[in-house]
């Protein structure tokens, strides 16, 4: 036979309430334990034995210290160096400006005036009589003959620099040289892609023969001539 319990005395109904009350009590005890403070006891120290007698009056000793002044810097005597006067002074001769009536007056016509010739430079286009390349003396068109002989001279003396071939350097060198009034080759100007090609162009032009100088109004003059030299690898 199964025993019957009184529903009013059943403790399981209030188990949740009892659990909450117990949990609150435990939390309160933990909080109180954490917040509990213990103060150190206050010790009273009697300083009566350390009291100083007011009748004793002692003055603090005063010490006077004398500062030693710094030593004075030594003053060295000034040495006088005697230098011999070896500098030669150019004496300027002062010429009097007074008129000397005994001086002979020279006639200006007695002086010989030497006129220095003015150097005339003419370019190839405006020259009246072009320079004559050796071999073109009997040519009817001396300009055309000059150009042909120049091309022949360049082909004959042309040599491609080995360094330029190794470095694959090529291009055109613009040159300009002066044919002096005595037919010789003067200053050679050059401008190209590399110094090696420029030197070769100067070498070729420096081998030009002496020519018959160009003339302007019947007078030999300097004539400038420009020609490009092309260096091209095959």
TrEMBL record:
Keywords: Cell inner membrane, Cell membrane, Membrane, Protein transport, Transmembrane, Transmembrane helix, Transport
PROSITE patterns in the cross-refs: TONB_CTD (PS52015)
Membrane-related topology note: Single-pass membrane protein
Classification via SUPFAM superfamilies: TolA/TonB C-terminal domain (SSF74653)
Localisation: Cell inner membrane
Any GO CC annotation of this UniProt entry: outer membrane-bounded periplasmic space
Classification via Pfam families: TonB_C (PF03544)
Gene3D superfamilies, alphabetized: 3.30.1150.10
TonB C-terminal domain sequence ranges: 145-234
Chief localization: membrane
Annotated GO MF terms: energy transducer activity
InterPro entries documented for this protein: TonB, TonB-dependent_transducer, TonB/TolA_C, TonB_C
Biological process, per Gene Ontology: protein transport; siderophore transport; transmembrane transport
Keyword Iron-sulfur: no
PANTHER family: PROTEIN TONB, PROTEIN TONB-RELATED
Family under the similarity heading: Belongs to the TonB family.
The name this protein goes by in its record: Protein TonB
The species this protein was found in: Maribacter litoralis
């Amino acid at each position: 036979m199964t025993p019957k319990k009184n529903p009013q005395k059943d403790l399981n109904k209030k188990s949740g309430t009892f659990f909450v009350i117990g949990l609150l009590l435990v939390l309160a005890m933990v909080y109180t334990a954490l917040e509990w403070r213990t103060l150190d006891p206050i010790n009273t120290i009697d300083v009566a034995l350390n009291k100083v007698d007011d009748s004793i009056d002692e003055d603090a000793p005063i010490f006077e210290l004398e500062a030693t002044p710094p030593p004075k810097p030594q003053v060295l005597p000034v040495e006088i160096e005697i230098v011999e006067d070896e500098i030669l002074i150019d004496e300027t001769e002062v010429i009097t400006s007074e008129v000397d009536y005994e001086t002979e007056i020279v006639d200006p016509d007695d002086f010989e005036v030497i006129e220095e010739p003015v150097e005339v430079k003419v370019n190839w286009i405006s020259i009246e009589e072009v320079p004559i390349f050796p071999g073109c003396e009997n040519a009817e068109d001396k300009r055309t003959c000059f150009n042909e002989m120049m091309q022949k001279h360049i082909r004959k003396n042309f040599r491609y620099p080995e360094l330029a071939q190794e470095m694959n350097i090529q291009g055109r060198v613009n040159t300009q040289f002066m044919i002096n009034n005595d037919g010789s080759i003067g200053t050679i100007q050059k401008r190209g892609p590399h110094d090696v090609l420029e030197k070769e162009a100067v070498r070729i032009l420096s081998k030009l023969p002496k020519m018959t100088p160009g003339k302007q109004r019947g007078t030999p003059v300097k004539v400038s001539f420009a020609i490009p030299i092309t260096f091209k690898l095959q």
